Amino acid sequence: MGGLMLPPAAWRARAGLDRLCAALGPGAARFVGGAVRDTLLGIDVADIDLATELPPEDVLDRLRAAGIKAVPTGLAHGTITAVLPDGPVEVTTLRRDVATDGRHATVAFTQAWEEDAARRDFTINALYADPITGEVFDYFGGVADLAARRVRFIGDPLQRIAEDHLRILRFFRFHARFGETVDAAGLAACAARANDLMALSRERIAAELLKLLLADHAVPTVALMIGHGIFRPVLPEIVATDRLARLAAREAGSGTVPNPIRRLAALLPADAAIAEDVGARLKLSNLDRRRLVGATQPAGDAPARAIAYTLGPDLAIDRLLLSDRPLADVAAIAGWQPPRLPVSGGALVERGVRKGPEVARLLRAIEAEWVREDFPAQPRLDAIVDDALDQWRRVSSSA
């Protein structure tokens, strides 16, 4: 393995982690996957996973004996979740695939680390590290691929895609996050098997796509996918990245945190019906579907705060960033919370307006002027109310 050691990292000192590893026993468990990969790259680690030679029932017994809360979250697939003070850690028994159908896998437990590594998707995700010594175990050249910034399938790419069709999208998602050099064999296999995406649930497609759109190199990666026909079977509406590239630049220029729904809107035609269809096809939540459809509409020429008052700040920022409006408009509503109209129908009734439709109509007129004048403070608001009431009285007296 070349004697590579996992460098120090803050996550390795998380409360309870040493006790968890001690409960599993020396040499019986190793850190695996993203925690090892990201630490080698100097990236902050979010999730910690452990692989172990121990069968899941043994893991449960050991954790409970050590006073560690253990939840059998995926017992059939060998996964136990250890609940630690700083967050959960998944502990999974080493596995090998017995049968696959492109969507699901039947697994058997093993004690062979290389068998477990061989069933993983990419070499950079098949890295293990000893919790005590920090020694890194690399069975398929993942360290070299990390150095080359290359995402490479373990084994035959076509076979790996046949086992799990989602690996097509994962190939591009990991490339968008880590890649610089595109693995030619992997790219060719993804292009050849793009139709396999039609067999996947749309929720799984959406989850991968939305993660991809937040990656640092999302724009060139999506362009690569379009050029190789990856979207054609499931999202034929995505045909160009011009608007996405422009949006990414405007997000950066305005200091706006990228949003995946906003970025998806940038990949679609500015057509509410198409956005509604795509949102339904991807089975997005109702909230995300409304945001996707809303983001396709023009920003208009109203003041930025008026737009935010009407639509809410998030959707207003979406429309402004996707428009030609100056970035100063985005800055004008960044962190701004629209106020509530400080005038009630009861206050109008006290001043002589009869309860009913007239109250609602007057409130709408007062609100419209208050918004048009950019939410003036009480003295000016009082004048707006007085003007609206004066006009109402004149109309009422002449009726």
Explain what this protein looks like in three dimensions:
By secondary structure, the chain is of the alpha+beta class. The protein is about 50% helix and about 10% strand. The protein contains 20 helices and 9 strands. The protein has helices spanning about 15-25, 35-40, 55-65, 115-120, 140-150, 155-165, 165-180, 185-190, 200-210, 220-225, 240-255, 260-265, 270-280, 285-295, 305-310, 315-320, 325-335, 345-350, 355-370, 380-399; strands at about 30, 50, 70-75, 80-85, 85-95, 95-100, 105-110, 125-130, 135-140. It has a 7-stranded mixed β-sheet with strand order 3-4-5-2-1-8-9. A hairpin with a 4-residue loop joins strand 6 and strand 7.
Keyword list:
two-stranded antiparallel ribbon, 49% helix, elongated, 399 residues, 20 helices, seven-stranded mixed beta sheet
